[in-house]
Every structure is written in structure tokens, then in C-alpha cells.
TrEMBL record:
InterPro entries for the chain: AA_transpt_TM (IPR013057)
Pfam families linked to this entry: Aa_trans
Membrane topology: Multi-pass membrane protein
Principal cellular location given in the protein's record: membrane
Family: Belongs to the TMEM104 family.
Organism field: Cirrhinus mrigala (Mrigala)
Transmembrane residue ranges: 65-87, 107-129, 149-168, 180-200, 224-246
Name of the featured protein: Amino acid transporter transmembrane domain-containing protein
Amino acid sequence: MMIILALIRIGKGHSEGHPSMAQISGVPNLFGVCVYSFMCQHSLPSLVTPISNKQRMSALVMADYILILCFYSLLSLTAIFCFDSSLLRDMYTLNFTDNCDVLSIPVLRYFLGLFPVFTISTNFPIIAVTLRNNWKTLFHRDGGTYPWVVDRIVFPLITIVPPIIVAFCTHDLESLVGITGAYAGTGIQYIIPAFLVYFSRRHLEPVLGRDAVNKHRSPFHHTFWVWFVILWATFCLMFVTANIVLTETKN
């Protein structure tokens, strides 16, 4: 809906965006924001599991990622050409609720304005339950059980209180997404998967042998790519940290 509305406005010649070719100053924060694209990987298990014949799995996953990239690119490009960059809101859906000449139907304006609420309301309980279970697993002792207060009160509180505090303390979504995406997101997106691949290969090598070949293996199966991902993650953290420090120094 947002892509179509932006294209209609651009087609009518009412677009306000005149973006420059590139802005090097925005590159450091780009690393943190782009990490959030890993959310598209959440759909991969639901795509892979029902398929019985996995011979063309690599092609299917590649097509899935290309489709996701196309939607990301189309949404971003229509946004920067449709709206003035100085007036572009961090929460993109709000641009359609504030601007009547883009969307004049009140019902649809409210729908787009509340769209993030709908998605977060459905995802937050699932993510919170997963995080609570991870806390319980992290502090679990063999043969031991948690007291009722710890199991039903402490673990849920340490799960939901931090995001509530952050929500009340800041409305700067750009900085929030950049920081969380850079630090927490880099660990989830790059560092943890790289170490999982490295140590799982070391664990399976004596079991399967060095000559075992996985017909579904990635074209990036060489160990070089594991260390490249870790190096890339390190550079991302350095860029984002430098950007945060320089921005705060200027302010």
C-alpha cells in the first residue's frame, strides 16, 4: 500500500524528494540500520520445512532473498523520492498519516498509522516468551527447579521491563534502531552464526570424516568466509561506535 501510494504521488508530479547521489556521513549509521534486514530470515524455516524434495533448495532461498531485496529497495526508493528528506519521519508509516494529499481516506490513514502497533503487538509476546525461556535455560542447573516467584515473576519482569523503560525514555527511533541494530543485531546476525558454523564443523568432522560432502552446502562453505563475517562485524561495530561518538561530540 505504501509503495503504491508513493508511486501514485510521484506519477502525478507532486513528489518532494530530491535526494543527493550519496552522503558518506550516513554510512556509519547505515550499518546499524541494515542489520535489521536479518528479520527476513525468520520466514526461512516456514519455507524450508514443508518441502520434501530439497534438491532446488538453494535456488528457492536465493529467489526468496532476491524478492525481499526488491521490496526493500522499492520501498526505500519510493520513500526518498516521494517525501522531502528533511520531513521524512523515522517511522515511515507516519508520513502517510500526516500528509492528506498522499492519502485522503481516513480509515486507511489510521490503518497505516497503527500498522507498527499491529505488528509489534503480535510479535512482542512471542519474542518475550522466547527470551524468558532463554533466561531460564541460561541459569538452569541440572536437576534443579526454580521457585515459583523466580519462575513466574522474576524472569517475566527482566524480560518486559527493559523495553518498557526504553520506550518511555526515548522517541529517537533512528538512534535507537542504529544502536540496537549495531550491537545486539551484529551479535545475532554475524558473530553468533559464524561461531556456530565454525564449532559445529569442528564437532562433526571427527564424526563424519573429512571426506564427507554435504550436497546442500553453501557456495561460501570455506572457512575464509567465517572469519570474513567476523571481520565485517568488527568493522560495523567500529563505524557505528565512531558515528555515535562523533555525533554526540558535535551536539
